[in-house]
Write a structure and sequence with these properties.
By secondary structure, this protein is mostly helical. It folds into two domains: about 1-35 and about 185-340, ABC transporter transmembrane region fold, CATH 1.20.1560; about 50-175, no CATH class. It contains twelve helices and three strands.
């Protein structure tokens, strides 16, 4: 196999392009379940509200949340929002456009706990503005102890209810927001699916081209080598064996190389990417993907162990078939020529 790879040095650029296309295809394929989850969870269930970070909220709501947030985390919130005056003369706080990535995740964690406190107080008819600071601290400690048993995604989904109610109070059309989010996620999903299809088509085309180039070179080398044989060396090989070496064997090598580029090299991209995706989403489920990948690898090794000896037997039978059929075909052609 290494010798075969060495003969493909002139196609090194195409091979690098195949690797890049496989990586891009795996990235697109692995992102599709994520977009499906976004459509179902965020788009349908949460009405287009992605997390516990509202894009805007009333100044009174902002002040209530700041009172419930620990002093060490208040700067994160104050740096993320800007106070403005709305048309009705009241205050409104808007999220800064620069809040993205890790900063938004940190802000989501801080706000979700405070919003959960507000929801709990509303259910119990507790006026948070009238509570002393010590009582609020005790509520925060109780809430944090309860939330430790739940993953962050569950807490965020519960806090989204607060954000939805805040948007309704501001007059935001949630149905329009939901439709806009669903269409945006759907178009992104379609674009990635089409990009994956295009990458797959180019991978098949380029891998077939590289494999065909290798097969052409191997046939030329085998034919050139056979022509250098002396009569004594020719007698050591049967005609059937030489036919098999220059046709079937080269075709098998060409087929293996084509499948290696399209399937064998693509599998590690999916396996590693899947494990990284699961570890990023929820680490307590990553062992399932690791176990599944290990089982698939063991199955492949076992299959190769059983298949390779049978493949060698098949090659011998092909030699035997060529040995029987070749003289008869040659005699038939000779008789046909004599008749003509």
């Amino acid at each position: 196999m290494l010798r075969m790879l060495g003969k493909m040095k002139k196609n090194f650029g195409w091979i690098l392009l195949i690797f890049g296309l496989l990586f891009l295809q795996a990235t697109c394929d692995l992102s599709l379940p994520e977009y499906t989850s976004k459509i179902v969870d965020t788009g349908i269930q949460q009405k287009g509200v992605e997390d516990a970070v509202p894009s805007k909220m009333r100044a009174a709501t902002y002040d209530t949340l700041m009172k419930l947030i620990a002093k060490s985390d208040q700067k994160i919130v104050s740096d993320s929002y800007t106070k403005e005056n709305d048309k009705n003369g009241g205050g409104i706080c808007k999220l800064n456009p620069s809040v993205k990535g890790d900063q938004r995740d940190e802000l989501n964690t801080v706000l979700s706990q405070a919003e959960m406190l507000v929801l709990m107080a509303q259910k119990q008819n507790i006026d948070l503005t009238a509570l002393p600071e010590q009582a609020i601290i005790r509520l925060q400690e109780q809430m944090q102890s309860k939330l430790k048993a739940y993953p962050d995604s569950i807490v965020t989904q519960a806090a989204v209810t607060f954000v939805q109610s805040e948007y309704k109070a501001l007059g935001v059309d949630l149905d329009k927001m939901q439709t806009r989010y669903l269409w945006g996620a759907a178009w992104q999903m379609i674009a990635r699916a089409l990009l994956s299809m295009v990458c797959s088509i180019f991978v098949v085309f380029l891998s077939s081209r590289v494999a065909a180039s290798l097969g052409r070179d191997l046939r030329g080398e085998v034919y050139g080598k056979v022509l250098t044989f002396s009569s004594r060396e020719m007698n050591q090989f049967s005609t059937a064996s030489l036919i098999t070496r220059s046709t079937n064997d080269v075709q098998q090598v060409q087929l293996v190389m084509s499948l290696m580029f399209r399937v064998v090299l693509y599998a590690p991209f999916l396996a590693i990417g899947g494990i990284l995706k699961v570890m990023k989403t929820s680490s307590y489920l990553s062992w399932i993907i690791v176990l599944g990948t290990a089982i698939v690898a063991v199955v492949i090794v076992v299959l190769f162990t059983f298949v390779m000896p049978k493949f060698k037997v098949l090659q011998k039978k092909i030699d035997r078939l060529n040995l029987i059929c070749h003289p008869r075909i040659f005699d038939g052609e000779a008789r046909g020529g004599a008749v003509r």
